[in-house]
């Protein structure tokens, strides 16, 4: 992973406080626990609470609305089946849900690549469609924990901006208004934070 940056005590606490505010807006962990007990109403509430955020993540990865919808549907089926595997002490519930969607989206990208390569033997096309093969796929629990650790390595501003954008589905303009920060600064936080987050997760 990326080399850990040095936090002051105050900055570390601020980052943790921001994560607490952003990642636990309406007790999704409680809804997950109820879902694990077979509570369909809790599952429906969990869907209403989180589907916009998870769709935003899938769309950011896949760039195709229909494909993103399919991935989110598959992700919620997986959530229903595996809700009992969530461990609150490892990562916030929204990070765990995001890990499921990210895993499904990456699998969809691999399948898309294979389909395209089957009908196009052009080496340049193959190079353009390269998706780096990750290390052996970790469990969702492990991936969620890794995402949480990587987010904590970002600056407080980057971590908050990325969390609001990808877990709450806010646009750059909405982020700027919410954070009372110039649009260009917000875009820079998100761009640099995502680059660091990607590098951290792939290391």
Fold and architecture overview:
- The protein is mostly helical and 203 residues long.
- The protein is built from ten helices and no strands.
- The protein has helices at 9-23, 28-36, 40-62, 65-82, 93-119, 123-128, 140-152, 156-167, 172-179, 183-202.
- Helix 8 (156-167) crosses helix 10.
- The chain is globular and about 45 Å long.
- The relative contact order is 0.13.
Task: Please describe the structure with a list of short key phrases separated by commas or semicolons.
mainly alpha, 203 residues
User: Tally of extended strands?
Assistant: 0
Strand content: under 5%
Q: Report the C-alpha radius of gyration, rounded.
A: 18 Å
**Apparent shape:** globular
Taking the sheet with the most strands, its summary is:
none
What is the H-and-E element order?
A: HHHHHHHHHH
Termini separation comes to: 5 Å
Mean pLDDT, nearest integer? 76
Uncertain regions: pLDDT < 50 for 5+ in a row?
A: 1-9, 11-26, 121-137
DSSP helical segment count: 10
Helical amount: over 70%
Structural class: mainly alpha
